[in-house]
Amino acid sequence: MRETKQWTDSERWALASETGFACAYCEVIFGSVARRPGSEPRIVRMVVEHFTPVSWTGIELDAENLVAACQICNSIKSAHLFDTVANARRYINRRWVQLGYVIEFIPTRSHFEAPELWAREYARYLRTVGIRQDAE
């Protein structure tokens, strides 16, 4: 079993900033809340994703192969191989629709400009939909 790199906060921040703090595939802002029918709401969290799967390249740390993705798209994409991010995006977006995902809460620029207000509003929203902040 191969070891995976543990990304630092600064590495994750730098990668996420390249996509405007949104998933490279679904373009949903990290911190949004998604739900699919019959499931609990999920916070859209960032993961470091290998565009070309490591199972194909064998190279874990190729910076040119890394994108900021959400955990939902990372799971949908899995080890599928695509020639462009646009083609991966089309496939993943179709799967989002087929699986019935909807976005229930999307942070806005004002949330990031006033983080203390955002934190209170976000915590209140998560409580109303029954998500513990330390969940997932």
Description:
The chain has 136 residues and is α+β, with helices and mostly antiparallel strands. It has one domain (9-107): DNA Binding (I), subunit A (Orthogonal Bundle), CATH 1.10.30. It has helices at 9-18, 54-57, 71-77, 85-99, 109-113, 115-129, and strands at residues 33-35, 42-43, 46-50, 66-70, 102-105. A hairpin with a 6-residue loop joins strand 1 and strand 2 (42-43). The longest helix is centred in the C-terminal third of the chain and has 15 residues, at 85-99. The two termini are 24 Å apart.
Rg, rounded, reads 16 Å
**How many E strands?**
5
Total DSSP helices: 6
Top-tier CATH class: Mainly Alpha
Please give the oligomerization state of what you see: single chain
Integer count of domains: 1
> How widely separated are the two ends?
24 Å
Instruction: Describe the strand arrangement of the main beta sheet, using strand numbers.
Output: 2-1-5
Q: Give me the CATH architecture, please.
A: Orthogonal Bundle
Average pLDDT taken over every residue: 80
Shape: globular
Unreliable spans: none
Helix content: 40-55%
Strand content bin: 5-15%
Biggest sheet statistics: 3 strands, antiparallel
Helices and strands in order:
Elements: H1 9-18, E1 33-35, E2 42-43, E3 46-50, H2 54-57, E4 66-70, H3 71-77, H4 85-99, E5 102-105, H5 109-113, H6 115-129
Antiparallel strand pairs: 1-2, 1-5, 3-4
Short descriptors:
single chain, 136 residues, DNA Binding (I), subunit A, three-stranded antiparallel beta sheet, 41% helix, 14% strand
